[in-house]
Amino acid sequence: MKISVEKYIPAGKDCCVLKCLDDGKNDDPLIIPCYVLVLLVGVFGNYLLIYVICRSRKMHNVTNFFIGNLAFSDMLMCVTCVPFTLAYAFSPHGWTFGRFMCYLVFLIQPVTVYVSVFTLTAIAVDRYYATVHPLKKRISMAACAYVLSGIWLLSCVLVVPAVAHTYHVEFREEGLTICEEFWLGQETQRLVYAYSTLLLTYILPLSAVCVSYLCISVKLRNCVAPGHRTRDQAEAQRARKRKIFRLVSLVVAAFGVCWLPIHVFNILRDIDIRLINKRHFLLIQLLCHLCAMSSSCCNPFLYAWLHDRFRAELRKMFTCHRRIGIPANHCATASVVL
Protein backbone atom coordinates (compact mmCIF):
# COMPACT_ATOMS: atom_id res chain seq x y z
CA MET A 1 0.00 0.00 0.00
CA LYS A 2 1.33 3.41 -0.90
CA ILE A 3 -0.29 6.71 0.05
CA SER A 4 0.68 9.68 -2.11
CA VAL A 5 2.55 12.43 -0.32
CA GLU A 6 0.55 15.22 -1.94
CA LYS A 7 -2.76 13.84 -0.68
CA TYR A 8 -1.93 14.07 3.01
CA ILE A 9 -0.08 17.32 3.58
CA PRO A 10 -0.70 18.60 7.11
CA ALA A 11 -0.61 22.28 7.89
CA GLY A 12 2.90 22.73 9.17
CA LYS A 13 3.17 21.82 12.83
CA ASP A 14 6.59 22.07 14.47
CA CYS A 15 6.22 18.83 16.37
CA CYS A 16 4.01 16.45 14.42
CA VAL A 17 5.34 14.28 11.61
CA LEU A 18 3.55 13.84 8.31
CA LYS A 19 1.90 10.49 7.86
CA CYS A 20 3.54 9.34 4.67
CA LEU A 21 3.45 5.58 4.29
CA ASP A 22 5.64 3.88 1.75
CA ASP A 23 5.00 0.16 2.16
CA GLY A 24 6.06 0.45 5.82
CA LYS A 25 9.75 0.63 4.87
CA ASN A 26 12.24 2.26 7.17
CA ASP A 27 14.84 4.13 5.10
CA ASP A 28 17.32 4.36 7.95
CA PRO A 29 17.64 1.67 10.64
CA LEU A 30 19.27 4.23 12.97
CA ILE A 31 16.15 6.40 13.20
CA ILE A 32 14.42 4.33 15.87
CA PRO A 33 17.52 3.88 18.11
CA CYS A 34 18.20 7.64 17.87
CA TYR A 35 14.62 8.43 18.88
CA VAL A 36 14.83 5.99 21.78
CA LEU A 37 18.09 7.60 22.93
CA VAL A 38 16.52 11.07 22.80
CA LEU A 39 13.52 9.79 24.76
CA LEU A 40 15.63 8.20 27.51
CA VAL A 41 18.10 11.07 27.88
CA GLY A 42 15.39 13.72 27.67
CA VAL A 43 13.08 12.11 30.22
CA PHE A 44 15.79 11.07 32.68
CA GLY A 45 17.80 14.30 32.45
CA ASN A 46 14.79 16.57 32.89
CA TYR A 47 13.26 14.43 35.63
CA LEU A 48 16.52 14.56 37.57
CA LEU A 49 16.59 18.32 37.16
CA ILE A 50 13.02 18.70 38.46
CA TYR A 51 13.84 16.37 41.36
CA VAL A 52 16.83 18.48 42.39
CA ILE A 53 14.84 21.72 42.29
CA CYS A 54 11.89 20.31 44.23
CA ARG A 55 14.00 18.48 46.82
CA SER A 56 16.38 21.30 47.79
CA ARG A 57 15.03 24.49 49.38
CA LYS A 58 18.22 26.29 48.33
CA MET A 59 17.10 25.88 44.74
CA HIS A 60 13.73 27.57 45.28
CA ASN A 61 14.15 30.85 43.42
CA VAL A 62 12.69 32.51 40.34
CA THR A 63 15.43 31.45 37.91
CA ASN A 64 15.30 27.81 38.99
CA PHE A 65 11.51 27.73 38.77
CA PHE A 66 11.81 28.91 35.17
CA ILE A 67 14.36 26.15 34.58
CA GLY A 68 12.05 23.64 36.30
CA ASN A 69 9.17 24.67 34.04
CA LEU A 70 11.45 24.22 31.03
CA ALA A 71 12.44 20.76 32.26
CA PHE A 72 8.80 19.74 32.80
CA SER A 73 7.71 20.90 29.34
CA ASP A 74 10.73 19.21 27.73
CA MET A 75 10.01 15.96 29.55
CA LEU A 76 6.34 16.11 28.52
CA MET A 77 7.43 16.92 24.96
CA CYS A 78 9.61 13.79 24.86
CA VAL A 79 6.82 11.59 26.21
CA THR A 80 4.16 12.87 23.81
CA CYS A 81 6.18 13.58 20.67
CA VAL A 82 8.71 10.77 20.40
CA PRO A 83 6.78 7.48 20.90
CA PHE A 84 3.60 8.58 19.13
CA THR A 85 5.61 10.03 16.24
CA LEU A 86 7.51 6.79 15.70
CA ALA A 87 4.42 4.59 15.99
CA TYR A 88 2.45 6.78 13.60
CA ALA A 89 5.25 7.11 11.06
CA PHE A 90 6.04 3.40 10.75
CA SER A 91 2.75 1.65 11.49
CA PRO A 92 1.19 0.22 8.29
CA HIS A 93 -2.25 1.04 9.73
CA GLY A 94 -1.47 4.69 10.46
CA TRP A 95 -2.88 6.11 13.69
CA THR A 96 -3.73 3.21 15.98
CA PHE A 97 -4.45 5.02 19.26
CA GLY A 98 -8.07 6.00 18.74
CA ARG A 99 -9.96 9.24 18.18
CA PHE A 100 -9.59 10.64 21.71
CA MET A 101 -5.81 10.16 21.79
CA CYS A 102 -5.59 11.71 18.33
CA TYR A 103 -6.95 15.02 19.55
CA LEU A 104 -5.27 14.83 22.97
CA VAL A 105 -1.79 14.08 21.64
CA PHE A 106 -2.04 16.61 18.83
CA LEU A 107 -3.04 19.19 21.46
CA ILE A 108 -0.28 18.42 23.98
CA GLN A 109 2.52 18.14 21.41
CA PRO A 110 2.56 21.75 20.15
CA VAL A 111 1.67 23.13 23.59
CA THR A 112 4.81 21.60 25.11
CA VAL A 113 6.91 22.91 22.21
CA TYR A 114 5.58 26.45 22.66
CA VAL A 115 6.00 26.33 26.45
CA SER A 116 9.63 25.24 26.06
CA VAL A 117 10.40 28.02 23.59
CA PHE A 118 8.69 30.75 25.63
CA THR A 119 10.34 29.56 28.84
CA LEU A 120 13.75 29.70 27.18
CA THR A 121 12.98 33.30 26.29
CA ALA A 122 11.87 34.07 29.86
CA ILE A 123 15.11 32.58 31.23
CA ALA A 124 17.17 34.74 28.86
CA VAL A 125 15.31 37.90 29.90
CA ASP A 126 15.61 36.99 33.60
CA ARG A 127 19.35 36.48 33.28
CA TYR A 128 19.65 39.74 31.36
CA TYR A 129 18.12 41.74 34.21
CA ALA A 130 20.12 39.84 36.83
CA THR A 131 23.43 40.56 35.06
CA VAL A 132 22.99 43.88 33.29
CA HIS A 133 20.75 45.52 35.91
CA PRO A 134 21.77 43.82 39.18
CA LEU A 135 20.50 46.68 41.37
CA LYS A 136 16.97 46.49 39.99
CA LYS A 137 14.43 44.55 41.98
CA ARG A 138 13.99 41.00 40.69
CA ILE A 139 10.50 39.69 40.04
CA SER A 140 8.79 38.07 43.00
CA MET A 141 7.75 34.44 43.30
CA ALA A 142 4.13 35.51 42.76
CA ALA A 143 5.08 37.36 39.56
CA CYS A 144 7.02 34.28 38.45
CA ALA A 145 3.89 32.16 38.92
CA TYR A 146 1.89 34.65 36.82
CA VAL A 147 4.52 34.57 34.06
CA LEU A 148 4.55 30.76 33.97
CA SER A 149 0.74 30.64 33.95
CA GLY A 150 0.74 33.17 31.11
CA ILE A 151 3.20 31.04 29.14
CA TRP A 152 0.99 27.95 29.43
CA LEU A 153 -2.16 29.94 28.64
CA LEU A 154 -0.61 31.59 25.58
CA SER A 155 0.66 28.22 24.35
CA CYS A 156 -2.83 26.71 24.66
CA VAL A 157 -4.38 29.65 22.79
CA LEU A 158 -1.85 29.34 19.95
CA VAL A 159 -2.76 25.70 19.26
CA VAL A 160 -6.53 26.28 19.12
CA PRO A 161 -6.59 26.87 15.32
CA ALA A 162 -4.49 23.76 14.70
CA VAL A 163 -6.65 21.56 16.93
CA ALA A 164 -9.80 22.96 15.30
CA HIS A 165 -8.50 21.72 11.93
CA THR A 166 -7.28 18.33 13.15
CA TYR A 167 -9.23 15.34 11.87
CA HIS A 168 -9.32 11.65 12.69
CA VAL A 169 -10.22 9.86 9.46
CA GLU A 170 -10.67 6.12 8.99
CA PHE A 171 -10.28 4.39 5.62
CA ARG A 172 -11.90 1.07 6.45
CA GLU A 173 -11.36 -0.58 3.08
CA GLU A 174 -7.64 0.26 3.06
CA GLY A 175 -7.24 -0.54 6.77
CA LEU A 176 -5.71 2.89 7.34
CA THR A 177 -6.46 5.64 9.87
CA ILE A 178 -4.95 9.11 9.74
CA CYS A 179 -4.80 11.86 12.33
CA GLU A 180 -3.79 15.05 10.58
CA GLU A 181 -4.33 18.78 10.33
CA PHE A 182 -6.31 19.86 7.25
CA TRP A 183 -7.37 23.37 6.26
CA LEU A 184 -9.81 22.45 3.53
CA GLY A 185 -10.36 25.40 1.22
CA GLN A 186 -8.54 27.73 3.62
CA GLU A 187 -5.02 27.80 2.21
CA THR A 188 -4.51 31.52 2.87
CA GLN A 189 -5.58 31.16 6.53
CA ARG A 190 -3.31 28.13 6.89
CA LEU A 191 -0.29 30.02 5.61
CA VAL A 192 -1.05 33.03 7.83
CA TYR A 193 -1.27 30.73 10.85
CA ALA A 194 1.88 28.81 9.89
CA TYR A 195 4.05 31.89 9.39
CA SER A 196 2.62 33.65 12.45
CA THR A 197 3.55 30.59 14.50
CA LEU A 198 7.05 30.63 12.96
CA LEU A 199 7.44 34.28 13.94
CA LEU A 200 6.16 33.80 17.51
CA THR A 201 7.91 30.54 18.30
CA TYR A 202 11.26 30.89 16.53
CA ILE A 203 12.21 34.24 15.04
CA LEU A 204 11.14 36.49 17.93
CA PRO A 205 12.34 34.14 20.73
CA LEU A 206 15.67 33.55 18.99
CA SER A 207 16.11 37.31 18.55
CA ALA A 208 15.27 37.92 22.23
CA VAL A 209 17.69 35.21 23.36
CA CYS A 210 20.48 36.55 21.13
CA VAL A 211 20.01 40.16 22.26
CA SER A 212 19.78 39.19 25.94
CA TYR A 213 22.92 37.07 25.95
CA LEU A 214 24.79 39.57 23.77
CA CYS A 215 24.10 42.27 26.37
CA ILE A 216 25.20 39.88 29.12
CA SER A 217 28.46 39.16 27.26
CA VAL A 218 29.20 42.86 26.72
CA LYS A 219 28.43 43.61 30.38
CA LEU A 220 30.76 40.89 31.63
CA ARG A 221 33.52 41.85 29.21
CA ASN A 222 33.47 45.45 30.38
CA CYS A 223 33.14 44.52 34.03
CA VAL A 224 36.26 45.26 36.09
CA ALA A 225 36.55 44.04 39.67
CA PRO A 226 37.35 46.85 42.14
CA GLY A 227 40.61 47.00 44.05
CA HIS A 228 44.05 45.65 43.32
CA ARG A 229 44.06 42.08 42.03
CA THR A 230 46.84 39.59 42.03
CA ARG A 231 47.87 37.83 38.86
CA ASP A 232 46.09 34.64 39.92
CA GLN A 233 42.88 36.53 40.68
CA ALA A 234 42.96 38.30 37.32
CA GLU A 235 43.51 34.99 35.53
CA ALA A 236 40.67 33.38 37.48
CA GLN A 237 38.33 36.21 36.46
CA ARG A 238 39.33 35.88 32.80
CA ALA A 239 38.75 32.12 32.97
CA ARG A 240 35.31 32.70 34.50
CA LYS A 241 34.40 35.15 31.73
CA ARG A 242 35.57 32.72 29.04
CA LYS A 243 33.44 29.99 30.60
CA ILE A 244 30.38 32.24 30.63
CA PHE A 245 30.96 33.31 27.02
CA ARG A 246 31.22 29.67 25.92
CA LEU A 247 28.06 28.78 27.81
CA VAL A 248 26.16 31.71 26.31
CA SER A 249 27.31 30.73 22.82
CA LEU A 250 26.22 27.14 23.39
CA VAL A 251 22.77 28.21 24.62
CA VAL A 252 22.13 30.42 21.59
CA ALA A 253 23.57 27.88 19.14
CA ALA A 254 21.57 24.99 20.62
CA PHE A 255 18.30 26.89 20.39
CA GLY A 256 18.93 28.11 16.84
CA VAL A 257 20.39 24.90 15.41
CA CYS A 258 17.98 22.40 16.98
CA TRP A 259 14.84 24.13 15.75
CA LEU A 260 16.12 25.44 12.41
CA PRO A 261 15.76 22.24 10.29
CA ILE A 262 12.08 21.62 11.08
CA HIS A 263 11.20 25.26 10.35
CA VAL A 264 13.12 25.20 7.05
CA PHE A 265 11.39 21.92 6.16
CA ASN A 266 7.95 23.40 6.86
CA ILE A 267 8.71 26.52 4.80
CA LEU A 268 9.92 24.48 1.82
CA ARG A 269 6.86 22.26 2.07
CA ASP A 270 4.57 25.30 2.08
CA ILE A 271 6.35 26.93 -0.87
CA ASP A 272 6.49 23.85 -3.08
CA ILE A 273 6.27 20.23 -1.93
CA ARG A 274 8.41 19.20 -4.92
CA LEU A 275 11.42 20.97 -3.40
CA ILE A 276 11.70 18.02 -1.00
CA ASN A 277 12.73 14.64 -2.33
CA LYS A 278 9.52 12.61 -2.55
CA ARG A 279 11.19 9.23 -2.07
CA HIS A 280 12.88 10.26 1.18
CA PHE A 281 10.19 12.67 2.37
CA LEU A 282 9.42 10.78 5.58
CA LEU A 283 13.09 10.23 6.42
CA ILE A 284 13.92 13.91 5.94
CA GLN A 285 11.01 15.00 8.12
CA LEU A 286 11.89 12.48 10.82
CA LEU A 287 15.48 13.72 10.89
CA CYS A 288 14.31 17.34 11.18
CA HIS A 289 11.89 16.33 13.93
CA LEU A 290 14.62 14.37 15.71
CA CYS A 291 16.88 17.42 15.64
CA ALA A 292 14.11 19.52 17.23
CA MET A 293 13.48 16.89 19.91
CA SER A 294 17.20 16.78 20.75
CA SER A 295 16.80 20.24 22.29
CA SER A 296 15.07 18.54 25.23
CA CYS A 297 18.32 16.64 25.85
CA CYS A 298 20.54 19.72 25.55
CA ASN A 299 18.58 22.00 27.87
CA PRO A 300 19.22 20.15 31.19
CA PHE A 301 22.98 20.26 30.58
CA LEU A 302 23.07 23.85 29.35
CA TYR A 303 20.81 25.30 32.04
CA ALA A 304 21.68 23.14 35.02
CA TRP A 305 24.37 20.49 34.96
CA LEU A 306 27.05 22.92 33.74
CA HIS A 307 26.44 25.06 36.82
CA ASP A 308 28.26 24.38 40.07
CA ARG A 309 25.25 24.74 42.38
CA PHE A 310 23.19 22.11 40.57
CA ARG A 311 26.08 19.69 40.52
CA ALA A 312 26.71 20.25 44.23
CA GLU A 313 23.07 19.61 45.10
CA LEU A 314 23.03 16.51 42.94
CA ARG A 315 26.12 15.13 44.66
CA LYS A 316 24.50 15.70 48.05
CA MET A 317 21.47 13.67 47.05
CA PHE A 318 23.44 10.78 45.59
CA THR A 319 26.10 10.60 48.26
CA CYS A 320 25.34 8.66 51.42
CA HIS A 321 26.66 10.68 54.34
CA ARG A 322 27.75 8.97 57.48
CA ARG A 323 25.04 9.25 60.15
CA ILE A 324 25.13 8.86 63.88
CA GLY A 325 24.50 5.29 64.94
CA ILE A 326 24.95 3.81 61.44
CA PRO A 327 28.20 1.91 60.81
CA ALA A 328 30.21 3.21 57.89
CA ASN A 329 30.44 -0.22 56.27
CA HIS A 330 26.61 -0.38 56.06
CA CYS A 331 26.46 2.83 54.05
CA ALA A 332 26.29 2.28 50.32
CA THR A 333 27.96 5.06 48.39
CA ALA A 334 27.04 6.29 44.95
CA SER A 335 29.29 8.41 42.80
CA VAL A 336 27.98 10.78 40.19
CA VAL A 337 30.25 12.05 37.47
CA LEU A 338 29.05 15.33 35.94
UniProtKB/TrEMBL annotation:
Keywords: G-protein coupled receptor, Membrane, Receptor, Transducer, Transmembrane, Transmembrane helix. It comes from the Eukaryota. It is found in: Membrane. It is a multi-pass membrane protein. PROSITE patterns: G_PROTEIN_RECEP_F1_2. The keyword Lipid metabolism does not apply. One of its GO terms (cellular component) is neuron projection. GO terms for molecular function: neuropeptide binding; neuropeptide Y receptor activity. The keyword S-adenosyl-L-methionine does not apply. The chain crosses the membrane at residues 30-54, 66-91, 103-125, 145-164, 192-216, 244-262, 282-306. Residues 45-303 form the G-protein coupled receptors family 1 profile domain. This is Prolactin releasing hormone receptor 2b. It comes from Sinocyclocheilus anshuiensis.
